[in-house]
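This part of the workshop introduces the protein records we will be handling. The question running through the whole workshop is how a given chain folds. To make this concrete, we reproduce a full record directly below:
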Amino acid sequence: MWAKETVRRCFPRLTMRTALVLLAAFLMVGQASAAGEELQLKWEKRFVMDETRELVKRVVAAQDGGALVWADTTDTEYHILPPLLLKADAAGEEEWTRRMPEDFWIASVKQAKTGGFLVMGALRSEPEKLQLIRLSETGKTVWTKKIAVEGGAMIPQYYSLLYSDFSETSDGGWIAAGRYYPGGYEGGKSSLVHVVKIGASGEIEWDKTLATRSFSSADRVLVTDSGDIYVQGTASSGDSQLYIAKLTGEAEVIWEQTYDEVGSVTIRSVLPASDGGLLIAGYVNRYRYDPAYNDIVAWHIDAKGDVVWRQQYGEEESGEIGLSLSERVDGGYMLIALLESERNEPSDWSFMTLDESGNVLAEKTVSFPQVRVIGAVPQGAGDYLLLGEYWEKSTTLADKRDIYLIKYGKAKKLLSLHAYDHKLKLALGETKQLQVEAVYDDGTEEALTDAVEWKSSDEKVAAVGKDGQITAKQKGKAEITAAFEGKRATFTVQVKK
């Protein structure tokens, strides 16, 4: 499948407050467009599982350059199957898949700091216990820890997990976060943000309930290098709003704040910023949860909880969702978004290059026919993983869906060409296939077979064809030059009688 790509200039919805800032950004558009165009498709892969529907949930950027995908699964008649984990290598090739235990529900998956992966969830048959499962780099179970938590880990009759995310701590433990119903969950009573510290052996060291508004819950948790804890959640007394708390490793509240918007906010990504703060992306719905009224919203919030910048993007009634906000190596930010989210069909990703204030400098839109956008995460310095579902053209929503994984990255720069066996001695009439390799700035090397221009300094001694094959014609010496994208490599050929 080939991606359709367009590059366009784009700006947030104009207000008097931002007009002057955007005028300065407009003067930089030519430069920014080039930055947007430097992204290129590295690979795309469809993973077909027989007789199942993969409802993809999340992609994790792995330390080895690959990816781990979590997908909930049903058969074609909607019978629930155990969740699926799929590991792909740096080239997008499948390394392994595994089903989680029967009746197990995944809340979150992470790359473990020391290699392998961690899975958090609960068994529907043991809803009072939170489970942490450690997987090896090949997907084998290393250990399982079951932790009894106050209020339980799951509401089994509703298939609803009460914990949403977790993060490793430097002492080998974990911080888990979710929601807690002080009076029980029956009858729609209020919920509170709940944070639990779990020790390395599986014991609860402390738990913390944070009071915000009537209905509150934690969605994500991050532990900083200094040991502080960020908890991102939602607080609602009507519309849902962004809530963030920062705690010490001993559960003391450093600060907590609710960031009010006009409409209801849903957060899709929270990543650490280089200043010790957070980069947050999601969307705000302006009208009764109609997806056509979704607008992208993004924040850079510093370590003190102050807003460095906040921007809202979108066109009228187009339905757009922010999927991931990250910092660019060369300055500014990259915002990856879903376009036209109101369509219940394949949709588009957008790479939005932002300046230091979050203003859009350039936008590159990529479309993959039959692929429904789900998520996106940055990987390393300038690479991005895109996750989607491949829908068969002739099927309904109840039919086949497959995992679709895509990798985009900064265009590689060719450093040099390397000639194999660059000093050759041939007998009269002997032939030899020359080989040349491209060396790129990202450390990769690639054997070249096409688009190489070959030239002999003396065709009477050694003739070379368009495919790089030489033929020894008569006694003497000749140099064969290979040229590719402005770089050259030279072979020296000596022909003997």
